[in-house]
Design goal:
- This protein is 47% helix and 11% strand.
- By secondary structure, it is of the alpha+beta class.
- It has three domains: 5-202, Hypothetical protein af1432, CATH 1.10.3210; 224-307, Growth Hormone, Chain: A (Up-down Bundle); 315-360 and 396-424, Growth Hormone, Chain: A.
- The protein has a four-stranded mixed sheet. Strands 5-9-6 form a three-stranded antiparallel sheet. Strands 1-2 form a two-stranded antiparallel sheet.
- Helix 1 runs parallel beside helix 4.
- The longest helix is centred in the middle third of the chain and has 22 residues, at 225-246.
């Protein structure tokens, strides 16, 4: 069988797969599942072109990784063929642990395992069960347990190929031009100093643009207010469906979803059960969407109404403010819904939701991006970049939200809160 392939990618053009082991990883069902995990969850309800998936992103990140490794080797950095293969495998598999709809349902199915935790567990399972320890070095690099730290930093850091791909790819598919970054130039400027990934000083403006683009993409795409409403509705649909299932009042459910509705799953009651692995790796966006489509016909009014709202894009109104909403203001909105729809306080919680969104483009508490000047001196990016002195780029920026049904009549003049700081 010919395992050397060329994939035509709309972002980069041709992506070459010239390693048989990498091809075998791509062919595995765990990786093929990513075809059915939307890269941006429900964002296509806002940006219709954003229907790309984690499969495409992982291949794109692998392509950038190959370019980065070639650049470093050309600069005389010692990287063996085994290390190259293991690093390519690490970036290729870095997202295989994602839940359906990517980040929207993080911690819903197993409450104490993130998608990074799932990824590590699945790579370990592939290593032990299918590939007979050919992923040993991949796991070391993925977990940052390998002596060449720069290989892990290429996979996961504040300047990794994962971020370089998803910003350009998400920008391409949403049409949000602010997300475009100079990935090729940044990669050309990468270097290694004292076993750490660094960037040459000539890349500083491209890196600053990369950080600014990341901030803009968070507010315009990843934390878009309508996307946030969609995720609130999706989460409440699944919460309600789980309660109904456990009360034996749910008529339809997919087999893989059934496993996670039967009881609250944790690491302890998940890790050593083969049916748990089967259920998780069988579940994707299609399971959730088909269930929601069927749940429109459920007798439970809350589940059916929420499901119809999502399927028909009949969404909640959302208000966003720079400061936390006053508790009395939120309670007044709940009372309006409770009285107009004659609902209990518990049921109103499915339709009135408040919380906080956070955006930090560059995290000073994490390992800094290191810049190497012409004299061979190393500087943290924040020490030489004027842009990172601005709080919106290097500090947590929070926005507060409350969402509720648009059809609820609320006279704002009667509410016990001046909402002059609402920004939408």
């Amino acid at each position: 069988m010919n395992k050397r392939k060329i994939i035509n990618d709309p972002v980069y053009g041709f992506i070459n797969i010239h390693n048989e082991f990498i091809f075998d990883l791509i062919q595995h069902p765990y990786f093929q599942r990513l075809r059915n995990i939307h890269q941006l969850g429900l964002t296509s309800f806002v940006y219709p072109g954003a229907t790309h998936n984690r499969f495409q992103h992982s291949l794109g990140a692998m392509h950038l990784m190959q370019n980065a490794l070639d650049v470093l080797c050309d600069k005389g950095i010692d990287i063996t063929s085994q290390e190259k293969e293991a690093t390519l495998a690490a970036i290729l598999l870095h997202d295989i642990g994602h839940t359906p709809f990517s980040h929207a349902l993080e911690f819903f199915f197993v409450e104490d395992l993130s998608h990074e935790d799932f990824t590590k567990l699945l790579i370990t399972k592939l290593n032990n069960d299918t590939f007979k320890h050919k992923l040993d070095l991949t796991l070391q690099i993925f977990e940052n347990n390998y002596r060449k730290s720069f290989l892990h930093q290429l996979v996961s850091s504040q300047l990794d190929v994962d971020r370089l791909d998803y910003l350009n790819r998400d920008s391409f598919y949403t049409g949000v031009a602010e997300g475009v970054v100079g990935a090729e130039r940044i990669i050309k400027m990468l270097n290694v100093y004292d076993n750490q990934l660094v960037a040459d000083i000539k890349a500083i403006y491209s890196i600053e643009k990369f950080i600014i683009s990341r901030r803009l993409m968070y507010w315009q795409v990843y934390l878009h207010k309508t996307v946030h409403v969609l995720e609130v509705i999706l989460m409440n649909i699944l919460k309600r469906a789980k309660i109904l299932f456990q009360a034996k009042q749910l008529n339809f459910i997919s087999p893989s979803l059934r496993y996670f509705f039967e009881q609250t799953r944790t690491y302890a009651n998940f890790i050593n059960h083969s049916d748990a692995w089967e259920a998780y790796t069988d579940m994707d966006d299609n399971d959730i969407l088909f269930c929601i489509k069927m749940w429109q016909q459920e007798k439970d009014v809350i589940l059916s109404q929420l499901s119809k709202r999502l399927c028909n894009r009949h969404l909640f109104k959302i208000e966003i403010a720079e400061h936390a909403f006053d508790a009395s203001y939120l309670e007044a909105i709940r009372l309006h819904v409770e009285r107009q729809w004659k609902m209990s306080k518990e049921d109103v919680s499915y339709f009135v939701v408040s919380g906080k969104m956070e955006n930090r483009a560059y995290n000073r508490k994490m390992e800094s991006i290191q810049i190497l000047d012409k004299n061979g001196t190393l500087f943290p990016l924040e020490n030489i970049s004027d842009h990172l002195n601005h709080r919106t780029l290097s500090e947590n920026v929070s926005k507060y939200f409350v969402c509720y049904p648009k059809e609820i009549e609320i006279n704002k003049n009667t509410l016990p809160f001046s909402h002059h700081d609402s920004i939408s």
